[in-house]
Amino acid sequence: MNVIETEQLTKRFGTFTAVDHISFSVGEGEIFGFLGANGAGKTTAMRMLCGLSTPTSGSGKVAGFDIYKETELIKRHIGYMSQKFSLYGDLKVWENIRLYGGIYGLPEKRLKEKTDELLRVLDLEHERNTLVDALPLGWKQKLSFSVAVIHEPRIVFLDEPTGGVDPVTRRQFWELIYQAAQRGITVFVTTHYMDEAEYCNRVSIMVDGKIEALDSPAALKKTFKADNMNDVFRALARNAKRGE
Amino acid sequence: MLKYLLEKEFKQIKRDSFLPRIIFLLPILQLVILPFAANFEMRNINLSIVDNDHSVLSQQLREKVLSSGYFNLVDVSAKYDEALTSIESNKADIILEIPFRFEERLGREGGAEVLIAANSVNGTKGGMGSSYLSSILMDFNQEKGLSPAAGQMGGIRVTNLFNPHLNYKIYMVPGIMAFLLTIIGGFLSALNIVSEKEKGTIEQINVTPVPKALFLLSKLIPFWVIGLFLLTIGALVAWLVYGLIPVGHLGIIYLFAAVYLMAFTGFGLAISSISSSQQQAMFTAFFFFIIFLLLSGLFTPISSMPEWAQALTRFNPVRYLVEVMRMVYLKGSSLADMSGHFAIICLFAVFFNVLAVLSYRKNS
């Protein structure tokens, strides 16, 4: 069963077409890698799926709900972690967990258990009362992820969750992703690290607003006669006109 | 859900390094300093006297004028032309010319004219100065038992109701309290949502199923509480510093303030929702506040504005609260007297908050 489906999804800003008629689907429980160079349109596409941005044309469904009319219903069933850290820096670690747990309707008692559990899993028990602003980036990112899945959503959208994070923390982060996937949460993730692309069940590669390739990492490597995802990415992104 | 959002807002306000201070300082500073500065009583009016008579009586008149405390004697000239130079060089505001044979004519003819000439570049000063001076002259006439003028005027007696001593501070303080509520309700809230936009935290909220109205309510309630708290400080300052206690019911003031704060917080939140930076929100709020303030009747009476400006003040919520505060504080008006004001402020509250909900977008 597909939890994400799009058909000719497009977003234009004036004359600029950020996302250009993309069609794809993501199955339940998949870890789906959404790759592309800077400016390829990944974030814009993701924001449309999350109900943060209204598409210009095309259609799409997330968790069975329409991305035009049922955005508030979609929001009940997804988690989202934006590229820019967006938890409250002036709230403590436990307070952020409590806020989002509360917003998603966790009952008071469950909220307390969940907070303890999260802090234990993240190994942040000693930082419970630290203001989030004071945490190192890697911990912030892990906390963001945990908050994004606090309500056990059907799908979690992660926008470059490991950008600027050290290799050890990246590893730990992917362990969290795997644990979530094991619990049945579909993971939709963008990344620039090609080793991370290898961890995904399937990946799509966007170039200049279009999806140029979509398959499992193994199949892509075969198609492009490449040894690793890095070479696959280069082969495709070489022709990109946009970029930094 | 609201409970968690409110917890968040209050914690953030408490941890803010700036907000709690401003909340305490603002009412105290404004109420202690502004009423003295915004005082329309004229003092230190510079007076130039041309005494052509040099009699005992003219000397007495001079002393009488100067002892009133409103005037500074800048010079005594021999001729009117000389006095005029000191007006031209901005040394004097008013000339009082006592004519030749002043004493003699008063005694013989029972009356004599003096000349008052005022520099009206500063219209208020000139106008107020000449009217002070005329009333002093009238007084002088009466004292000397030569008061045909007062007699001719039919003995008009002016009684000032509600503020018998025409104390400007008593008039200003309730108005300034209204303005305080406007600033707190409007400005602080205008900076709030947009600061979440700048930090990026709003993105995480927008991707949750929080209803827009609920999120805005969680922003409105804290400013509402702060505003009422501020009003309490304001009322205390008014009492302790100016001995001012509302003649009417304090409860009425709180009732009006409660609705008014909702209106202005809604106004601020609407500005915050459409702005993309704090700077933009600040200037937009500032733009409206200046207009609201000048058209509120706080500093200048609405009745002396041109008709088109008077019409504009009807769309100004500040005007209504300024009036209400003065009516309750000075006149002791009851709720029934001000039911029209109440209905209008309620309408503003609904209007601004609907505007806020409409202008806040969870998706772009």
What general outline of chain A do the C-alpha atoms trace?
Answer: globular
Which architecture of the domain at 2-87 and 155-237 in chain A would the CATH scheme give at its second level? 3-Layer(aba) Sandwich
End-to-end Cα distance of chain B = 24 Å
Number of continuous helical runs of chain B: 15
CATH class of the domain at 2-87 and 155-237 in chain A: Alpha Beta
SSE string of chain A, helix = H, strand = E?
Answer: EEEHEEHEHHHEHEHEEHH
CATH topology of the domain at 2-87 and 155-237 in chain A: Rossmann fold
How are helices and strands ordered from N to C of chain B? Answer: HHEHEHEHEHHHHHHHHHH
Find the structural class of chain B using helix and strand composition.
Answer: alpha/beta
Task: Please render the helix and strand layout as text.
The complex is a heterodimer of chains A (244) and B (364).
Chain A: E1 2-13, E2 16-27, E3 31-36, H1 42-49, E4 57-62, E5 65-66, H2 71-77, E6 78-81, H3 93-103, H4 108-121, H5 137-148, E7 155-159, H6 167-182, E8 186-190, H7 194-197, E9 202-207, E10 210-215, H8 217-223, H9 229-237
Parallel strand pairs in A: 3-8, 3-9, 6-7, 7-8
Antiparallel strand pairs in A: 1-2, 1-4, 4-5, 9-10
Helix pairs in contact in A: 3-4, 3-5, 5-6
Chain B: H1 2-15, H2 19-37, E1 45-51, H3 56-67, E2 71-77, H4 80-88, E3 94-98, H5 102-109, E4 115-118, H6 123-143, H7 148-152, H8 168-199, H9 201-206, H10 212-242, H11 250-274, H12 278-294, H13 307-313, H14 317-331, H15 339-359
Parallel strand pairs in B: 1-2, 1-3
Antiparallel strand pairs in B: 3-4
Helix pairs in contact in B: 1-10, 2-8, 2-10, 8-10, 8-11, 8-12, 8-14, 10-11, 11-12, 11-14, 11-15, 14-15
